[in-house]
Specification:
The structure holds two protein chains of two kinds. Chain A is α+β, with helices and mostly antiparallel strands. Helix content of chain A is 17%, strand content 49%. Chain A contains two helices and twelve strands; from the N terminus they run αβββββββββαβββ. In chain B, strands 6-9-7-8 form a four-stranded mixed beta sheet. Chain B has a three-stranded antiparallel beta sheet with strand order 1-4-5, with no helix packed on it. In chain B, strands 2-3 form a two-stranded antiparallel ribbon. The chains are: A alpha+beta, B alpha+beta.
Chain lengths: 150, 218
């Protein structure tokens, strides 16, 4: 009978610890342009995308009908969204000295302009944009994407 | 243009909404209404980057793959069951129509400066001292949100000594920026010592171009 509360307390502790670790993850970029309805969702929290807001791996960026959002990542990648758009910065690693490079952006809907940065320059297969209809490998360039599904 | 899908998304919260949604969809298909818009598709367009360079993109799903390597060419995809189209050119007006809003929100490229220092010193060279005015002007004009200040040295002296020296250089520059009204919270100060040479040299080599602080302004 006593086992249950112990398990529950342990689970809460694990969740709190995990949350603390997740919360402490280092910034990977920042919000540089914001207009109208634009938000950053981090876990269960939704933050207004104010100028200068630091971004973290896993953040979901959204714009409303009047929204626009432009961000820069630490490898100088630049991402910008038009209205009614949603992307997740699913994976970002920029550690050239250790040979670890990667960027995966999941795009759910809307329009995005993508100017690749140093990760794409340093590694040929490290940058990917994933959409519901296709996956795009990006090699050192500017890419414009519209995602519109049936 | 309120599409069927949008209606569906707005309505799907409840069963009643769902039924309403189906009725609306049905009414859309009824004769006498304007023709339905062009079939929905996703667009993957390659354009030159702001420096004019063109790379390539590979568009892949389980039914096919296409490489786009010509500027202003796009591959389109209707669904994950539909192979990506061969690349075709898009008109400038069409590009503006579809992507204008996303392009308008594109952050400007960062501004970069390199300040050089006297030998074994955190004192700027006269040329770099003169460049400061331009640095301050840029910071003011851009409304800088994030400024990276990274100190470097040449390879004279020990690694540890150089780490400390380049840290002093970075802090010196940071202090100059703060004196000019820059918020210390937007500064990211780093020291790379002798590990990140601008001009590759062996150990114990005097090289003025390696004695520097790099400033990147976002």
């Amino acid at each position: 009978m006593r086992a249950l509360p112990v398990v529950a307390v342990t689970m809460v502790l694990v969740l709190v610890l995990f949350g603390a670790i997740a919360g402490a993850s280092s910034p990977i970029g920042l919000v540089k342009v914001t207009e109208g309805m634009a938000t950053v969702q981090r876990g269960n929290e939704t933050l207004p995308a104010r100028l200068g807001l630091a971004l973290q791996e896993g953040d979901v960026l959204r714009t409303g009908a009047d929204g626009r959002l432009g961000v820069v990542l630490h490898d100088d990648t630049r991402l910008s969204l038009g209205p009614e758009s949603e992307i997740q910065i699913d994976h970002f690693v920029f550690a050239p000295a250790k040979g670890r490079l990667g960027l995966v952006v999941k795009m759910v809907r809307g329009v995005m302009a993508f100017v690749s940065g140093n990760i794409a320059k340093l590694s040929h297969d490290a940058v990917r944009v994933e959409t519901p209809v296709a996956i795009v490998g990006v090699r050192g360039t500017q890419l414009l994407v519209k995602v519109e599904t049936q | 243009m309120l599409s069927g899908k949008l209606w569906y998304e707005r309505c799907r919260g409840s069963l009643v909404g769902g039924c309403l949604c189906l009725m609306l969809l049905a009414s859309c298909a009824a004769p006498g209404l304007p023709p339905s818009p062009a079939p929905k598709q996703s667009v993957f367009l390659l354009i030159p980057d702001p420096e004019g360079k063109v790379g390539n993109i590979t568009v892949t799903n389980r039914t096919g793959t296409q490489v786009v390597d010509q500027p202003h060419h796009a591959s389109t995809v209707r669904s994950s069951d539909d192979a990506p189209s061969p690349p075709s050119a898009l008109e400038e007006t069409e590009i503006k129509r579809i992507f204008g809003e996303a392009l308008a929100a594109q952050p400007a490229a960062p501004a970069r400066f390199i300040l050089y220092f006297k030998d074994d010193s955190e004192e700027l060279t006269p040329d770099s001292e003169a460049l400061l005015a331009e640095v301050f002007r840029t910071l003011r004009d851009r409304g800088a949100l994030d400024i990276s200040v990274i100190g470097h040295t040449d390879t004279i002296g020990t690694r540890e000594y150089n780490y400390q020296l380049s840290l002093r250089r970075a802090r010196k520059v940071a202090d100059l920026l703060v004196l000019r009204g820059v918020d210390r919270n937007v500064l990211d100060i780093e020291s790379h010592g002798e590990d990140n040479l601008l001009v590759k040299t062996g150990d114990q080599v005097r090289e003025p171009r390696n004695r520097r602080v790099e400033i990147t302004v976002w």
